[in-house]
Amino acid sequence: MDITLQVNGVPRAVDVDPRMSLLDLLRERLGLIGAKKGCDHGQCGACTVLIDGRRANSCLALAVAVDGSEVTTVEGLAGGDGLHPLQEAFIEHDAFQCGYCTPGQLCSAAGMLGEPGPSAVTDDVLVDPDLTPAEIRERMSGNLCRCGAYVNIVSAISEVAR
């Protein structure tokens, strides 16, 4: 099937198998290897990208389902020559160890910062809560880190949220 999409601001027209995941399209066909294939079941978050500004597990999204969408990977997060504020904060706070989950963590955090509303740990669901460490941990719970860098990841995101 022929699809068109914007990937990191660049228009792309590709012919894909209807069964191809967005992750495989990005990595194997477009050479964007930032998003990682961790579990390939949507459980680890290593493949997280932004689809039309919302975070999504690219291993679960079919490429044909994102026809006409705008996809942002970690390679396009900064949008220029410098680093995205989250990337700078991750470096400053040493928010990674092996780095395998880092692209997914960064994309998920970027999407999370734009998501209003309560979460499962919000005390008053009628107000938009502050992004406390508990809120950040809850909202990032779909992104796993095998090395356990969670404390520094939360610190980095907290800095950018302020």
Automatic annotation (TrEMBL):
SUPFAM superfamilies: 2Fe-2S ferredoxin-like, CO dehydrogenase ISP C-domain like. InterPro entries: 2Fe-2S-bd (IPR002888), 2Fe-2S-bd_dom_sf (IPR036884), 2Fe-2S_ferredoxin-like_sf (IPR036010), 2Fe-2S_ferredoxin-type (IPR001041), 2Fe2S_fd_BS (IPR006058), Aldehyde_Oxdr_Iron-Sulfur (IPR052914), Beta-grasp_dom_sf (IPR012675). Pathway: Alkaloid degradation; nicotine degradation. This is 2Fe-2S iron-sulfur cluster binding domain-containing protein. It comes from the Bacteria. It holds the Pfam family Fer2_2. One of its GO terms (molecular function) is 2 iron, 2 sulfur cluster binding. Residues 1-77 form the 2Fe-2S ferredoxin-type domain. Gene3D superfamilies: 3.10.20.30, [2Fe-2S]-binding domain (1.10.150.120). Keywords: 2Fe-2S, Iron, Iron-sulfur, Metal-binding, Oxidoreductase. PROSITE patterns: 2FE2S_FER_1, 2FE2S_FER_2. It comes from Nonomuraea turkmeniaca.
